[in-house]
Amino acid sequence: MTAEISPADEWATLDELLGVDTVVDDAAGLVGRVAFYGRCSTEDKQDPETSYGWQRSNAAKFVEPLGGQIVAEYFDVDQSRSVTWERREHGSRLLAGLKNPARGWDAVVVGEGTRCWFGNQFSLTAPRFAAHGVELWVPELGGRFDPRNPSHKMLMSVLGGMSESERQHVQARVRAAMDTQVVNEGRHQGGRAPYGYVAVDGGPHPNPSKAAEGHRLRVLAIDEPAAEVVRRIFAEYLDGSGDRAIAAMLNRDGIPCPSAHRPEQNRHRHRDGWQASAIRAVLENPRYTGYAVFGRSTRHETLIDPEDVAAGYTTRFRRAESSTVVRSRKPAHPAVVSVETFTQAQLRRRGRSAGGMAGMAKTERTRTRGTRPYLLRGLVRCGLCSRKMQAAAIRNGVYYRCLARTLAPGSAVLEDHPKTVNLREDVVAEALNGWIGRLFSRENRDTTVRALAAVQGTDRGSAAQRALLERTVADARERLRRNQAAIDAGIDPAAIAEAMNEAYAAKQVAEAELEALPKNGNVTEAEIYAMIDSFGDVDDILANAKQPSLARLYEKIRPTVRYEPRENTLYIAGSPRVFSVCVGGVQHALVAAFAPQLMAA
To answer: What is the model's pLDDT at position 294?
Structure first.
């Protein structure tokens, strides 16, 4: 068998037989079907649509004259270039597509290399493309990347360094400009407004080009209901209460926490009431003085795995050094508290943190819940020092104790305070249960009903609780809707199954609690009589109730119990309320009306 030898290229047949690869200068018609990849970061307020447009146009102009046709697109939005391709949404999809023989493209083109690769990322991703026979076309190279060309490798390494340097320079310039705006103008730099403020329209943007595009300046204005809570927090703290005690008071009064007060700007947080961390954030935020303060926290990029640098970096917010924090020269927005009040609070916090146990002893004590259901946790106070008595299991009994050694050194009550004040839990529970039973007795029933009917209009706790639960249900439904939309868009259901289960569980719990709340704002006297008749023997219910049920009952009633050791007397006080609670395994609409003050020996 003989083959024809072309007179125009007599080496063509021999090169084919020997497997010799010759250099082809003309790349026209060699590109074929390609996938486009681009990336846009919104850190410096880029417009994703504009960024996508020019990158896509650059890629098309680069490959189309060479016979290339873009048949697939991958474009990441709001992704920092420091994030590895595996952790970018569309970048990871493109890498996964390399393994699919039916992907429909044999090359990848980018609009700009510095947009897509950072640091040493190219040296970590290029071998994966080569392993699957996929070419990389980079405009800065003037053609496709050749892994055998040392100049190409060097240039891509330089591009990665340029990308990293460019990002650092942009961050430094933006930070310097924002610092200047805060110091000279007191400008609000965006983000969520602090609890107690709302961001409102402040007129046209001072930058003429941004004003021409319709951008408006945002300034902080007081949200009066929330600002009043902020003032109360500072007042309670300066009065001696600690962070946890203040949080407990606000929860007890039914005041919505920041994430419940403004759920639209706190979608990332749970609406589970006030926490000590929220109180601390309020007390340590200097913007409540009316001055703009910027740079209290800063981004730090740390390796995900120090043993595997290729895994990339993750961003964490940390408290910034004091030297990098800036403050406006003059007030920038209305003040919630005075500079003097805020300064006193900071001096008090530093004094407590520096005083060790002596400093902690000055604070109102509220401990986290343990596994044991102490019936009166946080409700019993010592009549000598007015502090909460701490529950403790001693041998076979439960006691509430107040220890003199935990008082602040030099306290005026130390002289008369016994070393230990003990109060048995069963003594308090017996007296409290007996008194609740007497409220429902035949001779006191009319007084109890009239008291309850008279105070319903002033009880705001139920209304606040209903509003909080309704917001919780709405938020859970919105999360379920977003997750379902993600599944419809092609996300693997297994990847978001846990999130959907959490949202569904939160919705079910909130709906159950809503169902248990009174349907109407007020209950008539006839309805209250009917409730009492449905109880049966209240004394018997309380006597047979289990510890967890009784603990929930007392938590709902929230009586204040003061123990006077000198008199060996309990003083119990409270307010009338209507609520629903499960006692003895049965759901009862219990009604309790506390007298102004009751003495129980």
So the answer is: 77
Unique residue bearing structure tokens 């506390």: 594
Q: Structural domain tally of the chain?
A: 3
Q: Is the pTM of the predicted complex or chain greater than 0.85?
A: no
- Residue where the block lists tokens 């125009």: 8
Q: Which range, of 124-133, 454-463, 592-601, averages the lowest pLDDT?
A: 592-601
Residues 392 and 349 in one domain: no
3-class SS of residue 190: coil
Q: Which residues contact 42 (CB under 8 A, 6 or more apart)?
A: 48, 77, 78
Arithmetic mean of pLDDT, 492-497: 69
Distance CA 421, CA 381 (A): 11
CA 589 to each of CA 376, 453, 546, 555: distance values in angstroms, whole numbers, following the listed order = 21, 15, 17, 15
Angle between helices 445-455 and 525-535 (to 10 degrees): 130
Domain holding 70, by residue range, is 25-167
Let me know: does 59 contact 105? Beta carbons within 8 Å.
no
Which single residue is written with the structure tokens 């609690």? Answer: 513
Pairing of strands 197-204, 216-222: antiparallel
Strand, coil or helix: 58: helix
CA distances from 164 to 41, 46, 82, 116, 192 (A): 14, 18, 8, 11, 29
- Take residue 47 and report the two structure tokens written for it: 């417009």
Shared domain check, 440 and 541 = yes
| pLDDT, tens only, 457-467 | 544 445 656 77
CA atoms of 155 and 421, how far apart (whole Å): 78
